[in-house]
Specification:
Elements (H helix, E strand, L loop, with lengths): L2 H21 L5 H9 L3 H26 L3 E2 L3 H17 L6 H11 L4 H37 L1 H26 L1 H16 L4 H26 L2 H19 L1 H8 L7 H15 L10 H10 L6 H28 L6 E2 L2 H6 L1
Antiparallel strand pairs: 1-2
Helix pairs in contact: 1-14, 3-4, 3-6, 3-10, 3-11, 4-5, 4-14, 5-6, 6-7, 6-9, 6-10, 6-12, 7-8, 7-12, 8-9, 11-14, 12-13, 13-14
Main location: membrane
Keywords: Antibiotic resistance, Cell membrane, Lipid metabolism, Membrane, Transferase, Transmembrane, Transmembrane helix
EC number: 2.3.2.3
Length: 346
């Protein structure tokens, strides 16, 4: 990690401490300590297991995309990819650092940078598609609750959905309407050129054009393998499902047993969309706000609600930062590219 990244990480940790302190300002600490002592640690282990499965299943997706071109690409190497992604998503605005981090980690394992870029992009396409699919299910189940109880959040959820939907539409345009997309991007970039030097603007155009070409070529190749694509979609769907179920198991750990698993899971999908609207790394502030607002009806005790929110953030955000730092220090294992004659033998 660069010094700039280390400073970003430190700022996010301090910001998290500040938000936690602010959340605890009206909480009786003796009540909080009692709530901690009464936690069911078995249910917390289940919640932790869901987070582990979230990372593990993403590593499986990376392996599936890479295995057709490289051999000896271990699960350990693949696991470094989502952990590095989690770290750099968590310390950069709009999660902009996750993609470069994935490419860097795959390149460390001997994956060609162009191939690594294509894998990261295809993984992103599938992830966005499954986010939209999960959102549609969540809308059917939980939006009536959101509209009735917390109507002011409905607008945030709607805009969050529009962002994810626009991203997936843009990527699908590249895949299936390549020439139109290339022309459209040139038109969209014209106003950008008004505020940049000509040489820098040309480099930006060339870079975007190269990424579009790379993504199109890789998407054409991968979409021919429908079985693999279906497997990746299925694995990603369950990856997200385990992530969305984490709040339910935290509530079980706090002694709430009469909770609807499907409703809680659906509401967490909506939190995910609200968080994506906040440009601050990790959705800091937005994630905590969304959690406490949506789950206040399920956890009537204020101290337990704040404790549940803190545990949720530790498991779904800060744990990823910590594991990501460990992953970046691990020595990469080298994969070997499959030669054309080897691939025909298989």
């Amino acid at each position: 990690m660069t010094r700039k990244n280390m400073w970003s990480l430190l700022v996010m940790v301090l910001l998290g401490v500040g938000i936690s302190w602010y959340s605890l300002r009206n909480v009786n600490l003796s009540n909080m300590m009692t709530d901690i002592a009464q936690l069911n640690w078995w249910w917390l282990l289940v919640a932790l297991g869901c987070v582990g499965l979230y990372f593990g299943l993403e590593a499986v997706v990376v392996q599936k995309f890479v295995r057709h071109r490289y051999k000896h690409y271990s699960f350990r190497s693949a696991l470094r990819v989502p952990l590095a992604e989690q770290l750099f998503n968590g310390i950069t605005p709009f999660s902009s650092g996750g993609q470069p981090a994935q490419i860097f980690v795959m390149a460390q394992s001997g994956i060609d940078a162009g191939r690594a870029s294509s894998v990261a992009l295809m993984k992103f396409v599938v992830f966005q598609a499954m986010v939209v699919l999960n959102f549609l299910f969540a809308m059917l189940i939980g939006f009536h609750y959101l509209a009735a109880k917390l109507s002011y959040l409905s607008l945030y959820v709607f805009f969050g959905f529009l962002i994810h939907f626009a991203v997936i539409v843009g990527l699908l345009l590249v895949m299936y309407w390549y020439n139109f997309t290339k022309r459209a991007v040139k038109v969209v970039l014209i106003p950008v050129g008004w505020f940049m030097k000509a040489e820098r603007f040309q480099r930006l155009q060339a870079n975007i054009s190269e990424k579009i070409d790379s993504f199109y070529e890789e998407s054409v190749r991968m979409t021919k393998d429908w079985r693999m694509l279906l497997e990746v979609c299925l694995v990603t769907f369950f990856q997200l499902l385990f992530y969305y179920m984490v709040p339910y198991f935290i509530m079980r750990a706090m002694g709430y047993s009469g909770i609807n698993l499907i409703m809680v899971t659906s509401l967490n999908v909506l939190i995910f969309l609200v968080t994506s609207l906040f440009p601050i790394p990790g959705g800091a502030g937005g994630a905590e706000f969304g959690f406490t607002e949506l789950f206040a009806k399920f956890i009537p005790s204020h101290s337990k609600l704040i404790l549940a929110m803190l545990i949720w953030r530790i498991l779904t955000y800060y744990l990823g930062l910590f594991l990501g730092m460990i992953a970046m220090t691990m020595k990469p294992e080298k994969a070997e590219e499959i030669q054309p004659d080897e691939s025909t033998e298989h």
